[in-house]
Inverse folding.
């Protein structure tokens, strides 16, 4: 990441975003991160392949989702995915490097609209996503270690 990226997002927020456990488990690298934008990359590993020998669609989606999550949370206000539509456009060779790039298209008071592209290193367009984020209000925010039971969660409006 370039030094100019760091100036736009507070260090604490940047560190929280980049410490995402799922992104780390997949080996995703953060290549660029600024307000409303994120670019990440991952080298496809053998365990990421489906029974046909191609990268699993869930892995491609996950890489895109990491870019989306980072881009929509880069403003410092907690946001979650409200809807995501993905179109897979090309098969990918095992061992390829995927690059997911997330761009904010239109911010709103409570919703944000994002376009994500997933390409290979050679520029092959693998997938496109159209995403809507929902910015949480203080009332909706809960710590990740909530003590409420799952059953009680469902009963709450």
């Amino acid at each position: 990441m370039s030094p100019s990226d760091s100036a736009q997002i507070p260090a604490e927020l940047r560190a929280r975003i980049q410490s995402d456990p799922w992104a780390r488990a997949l080996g995703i690298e953060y290549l660029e991160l600024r307000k409303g934008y994120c670019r990440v990359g991952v080298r496809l590993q053998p365990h990421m392949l489906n029974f046909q020998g191609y990268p699993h669609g869930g892995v491609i989606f996950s890489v895109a989702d990491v870019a989306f999550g980072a881009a929509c949370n880069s403003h410092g206000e907690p946001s979650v995915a409200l809807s995501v539509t993905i179109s897979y456009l090309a098969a990918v060779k095992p061992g390829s490097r995927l690059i997911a790039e997330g761009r904010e298209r239109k911010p709103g008071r409570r919703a944000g609209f994002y376009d994500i592209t997933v390409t290979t290193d050679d520029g092959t367009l693998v997938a496109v996503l159209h995403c809507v984020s929902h910015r949480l209000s203080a009332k909706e925010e809960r710590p990740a270690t909530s003590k409420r039971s799952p059953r009680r969660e469902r009963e709450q409006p």
Remarks:
- The first strand starts at residue 29 and ends at 34.
- The radius of gyration is 16 Å.
- Residues 22 and 66 are 8 Å apart (CA to CA).
- The domain at 3-155 is CATH 3.10.129.10 (Thiol Ester Dehydrase; Chain A).
